[in-house]
Structure formats: C-alpha cells, structure tokens
Queue: 3 jobs
Job 1
Amino acid sequence: MKNAFIFKYVGLLIAFVGSLFFYLNRSIFVSRGYELAIDGYLISRTLVILFWLYLIVKLFNYISEDKKIKNIER
C-alpha cells in the first residue's frame, strides 16, 4: 500500500517537472526557420497548461482517496 502511495506521487511529480521543462524551454516548440510561426507555439503552451491542470485535479483526487482510505481503516 505504501509503495503504491509513493509511486503515484513520484509519477505525478516527474510529469509536472517534465511539463515545466517543456513550458520554460521555448526553443523546443519552435523549430529553426519557423520563428514567425507563433500559432503552433501558442497551441503547444496551451496544451502544457491544460496538462498541468489535469495533473492538479489528479493530485487532488489521489489526496481525497487517501483520506477516505485512512478514515475507513480507523
């Protein structure tokens, strides 16, 4: 039970740090020669923000599930 607890939070942390890396490195989303093509850049940053929101909701779901399990075990 404790291993699953650690595994899901570490997985969320890795996904959040990875998406933060992609969000902060602008050169990853804009290829050479396409500096003026900003539409794809905006879309990709928007998708990263949506992924962050998804991770936050998933984290709150995990926290609420853990609290329910602890209340049941008592």
Note: The first helix runs from residue 2 to 24.
Job 2
Amino acid sequence: MMPDQSLFMSSIERLDPADLDRLASYYRRLAHHLESLAASRASRETAAVRGVAYWSREIPARHAALVAAGTAHDAAADRIAAEMHVPAGTVAAYLDRHARAAAAAERAERNREIMRHARAGLSNAAIGRLVGLSGYQVGKIVRSEVKAAAAGRKIGA
C-alpha cells in the first residue's frame, strides 16, 4: 500500500454507514463503467489488429451475401459498417478496391485467352468475335502483352 492510501483508508474508516454505502455505490458504478470502456477498447484494438487482409476478405464477402439475400447495395454497406464498427467510408473503400481487383482479374483472364488464340494462329477479328471485342482492340492487347512479355512481365497481369 502506498503512503497516501493509508491516509485515505483512515479517512474512510471515520465515515458513517450511509456515506460508506454511497461511496461503495459510486465505486461500483465507476468499476462497471471502466470495465465497459476496457472491453470496448479491446474490441477496437482486436479489429485494428485484424488489418487489411481481414477486411479485404470479410467486407466484400458480407456485402455479397447481403445483396444476394435481397438487401440494396447501399443498405448492405451501411449494415456492414454498423455491424463491424467501421466508418461507412471504409466499407465503401474496401468494396471499391474489391471491384477494381475483380475487374483486373477478369481483364487478365481475357487477355490470357486472347494470347492463347493468337498463338493458335487466329486472326484478330476472329479472336475479337470470340471475346466480344473489335479486331483493333485485340491487336492492341496482343501488342501490349507481347511488349510486357519481352520486358519480363507475366502475360495477363
């Protein structure tokens, strides 16, 4: 026990029972409040520790499930923000990042398919009909992919 505490304890011992009850009640409320505050901070810290990898997977997955269940896009994003205790802007940013990554993956797959057909000897116009692009667009993609491969980058990346 610290020296100040002995003075505090001797002062408490001189209080009447009604004052002791009020003091005890006050400290119980304070203890309850502090426990709630500690739990809240621990929850936020746990969420922060999860980091980008967790949010990048969890937010789009929850959003897709809610939209598939019939919830509107904006309402689903708002619900996720409330449930996960993150700002709505954070949810929007992760959904946007996911959409861009998905579009890039689809483009890369389409470009790999174009290059497979080009290596097989099909004309740009024929490839374009297969993938829904013009022959000119296919030619630009083929030139870009050949240039990337010559520079040592992966085709379709």
Note: Residues 66 and 76 are 6 Å apart (CA to CA).
Job 3
Amino acid sequence: MNEETLRITRVESQVKVRLAPSVNGRENNPVKKATYAEVADRARSVRAILEERGIRLHQDSTLGKLLRDAENLVKDLDEGKKYDSTRRAIIAMHANRIAEAIIEVRADPAAYLCLERIAKKNVDLSLRLCSQGKDHLWELVLLSFCRNHGLSAKLVDPPDIIIDLAGVNHPVACKKVYSEKSVEAQMRKGVKQLSAQSFIGGIVAFNLDDLTPEDVILEGLTYNETSDFLAKLNAAFIERHRRLFEKYVKEGRCDGVLISTTVLAGLKLADTHFNTMTQTMLWTLSSANAGTRARMSALQMAFDGETDY
C-alpha cells in the first residue's frame, strides 16, 4: 500500500452523537437524540439569528419553508393530524442539520456570507442540484465538525477554514461534489485556495452527499453496518481519483484530502430508527514528507478524540 487512509466515523440521530456499544446484538441508543420539539426550537433559533444579523429570510425560500415545516411538526402531532412518518423524519433531520450549523456560528462575524447564501439559495438536501447555499452549508458543517472534536477552527476566506494545529495555521478548502467529472477542477481550485496566503500544507475537503441517490433513505440493520457501507463509498471515491490526489501531495501542494458523506438512514436494529449518518475519511500518502505526515496525524488524533488542540 502506498497510501494511508485514516477513517473517522460520526453517527448522528438527529443531533451529534457517538456510537454506543451493542448489547445482545442490538445497538443501544446513541448518547444524544432530539425530539421534534427540540428541532422546532432550533428552527426558531435560526430565525432569530438571521434577524439579528440583518439577513432577510423569505417565507417561500427553501430554508424558510423547511423551518416552517419543522416548527409545525409538533403542532401537527399534538392536533393528531395525519402525516407521513418518513417525510416527517426527513424534514426534522434536514432542518436539524442546517440549524446546528447555523447556531454554531451565530456570533461569528466571518459567517455572514455563508448565512446569507444559506438563507437565500437552495438548501434542499434531498435534491441533487448545484447550489451556493449547499456549498456554504458544507463550510459551516465542517467547521462545526472540527470544533466538536476539540480543534480551534475559524472561517477565513481564502481558503475557507483555518485550523490551529499546535499554534500553526492549517488551511482547509471546502468543496461540494455534484459530479465526478468536476473533481479535477474542484481539486485544482481547492489547492489554489490553500496557497492564497502562503500557508504550508492544508487539505481539500470534499463533501459527497450529492453523489448519493436523490431523496432516498438508506436502509440497514445497525449503525456499524451502515457506517461500513458509507466508508466503502468514500474509499471507492478515493480510488477513482487516486492519481489526482497523489499528484498534488507528491508536489507538496497539499497534505491530503478529507472525504465526507452524510445520508439519512433507517436502521432496523437500532433503538432510533431514523438517523442522520456521516462517514468521514482523511487520506494522504504514507510516503509524504514528514511535515505532511505530522499534520495529518494531528488531525486524525483530534478526530479520533485522542487529543485536543
């Protein structure tokens, strides 16, 4: 093997959680869950945040409709209205994912552009279409992911995110992939962003959500089974574009790549049937220079929860 693949799994059940151990072949509930009422509260918080930032949220925008649907879930349930349980779960999980990302940066001045694009552009996570809203949402989701793993991270344009690794700025360029044909161009743009302010190293972070089937819930038995399936999807993407990634690492123009895929999953043996599941991988060459290996190892350790920065 001439590469090193570092895998990090994050499992969610509407909110960020860690994987609980199995008991008698049946998986326990994840550590945290969210009720429909909690999702509705987060939706209201998003409205307040956008208002505080002076960002107009049109009621018929994608985000406006999603927040309204999320807020109405509890009311509809209380009134006994008939509602497709699967569609209700999709609304709640999508609304919660977006709300989490926005709430993370509620006081961050650098987040204004991201929030404005998310509010005004299409952020329907069930549809497979190019969107500046989803591009900027990916930046906030990854920022939150880094912070939740103990890393000091901030929005800086360019590149997109800066992570403090033991006092050294480590740049991250975020790229949403809507087509396999666009990967080379996205990688080239990402590497250019990494070098914009004379940073050393850095990673290009690809989100593959829009390469999965549209408006589909992945059916599985357990968290581990579904996580393994997503890991294989990420690994296959790396294999398909290995030469491209190797080229930039060998040239010293980046440290490697981060690959992340999130899907909605229905798990038959889990205590919580509907879940949002994310599988994230870091990749670099095992033959990369010592600086690259050290920086990627530091990221891996943080994502694995072995150290804080």
Note: The mean pLDDT is 87.
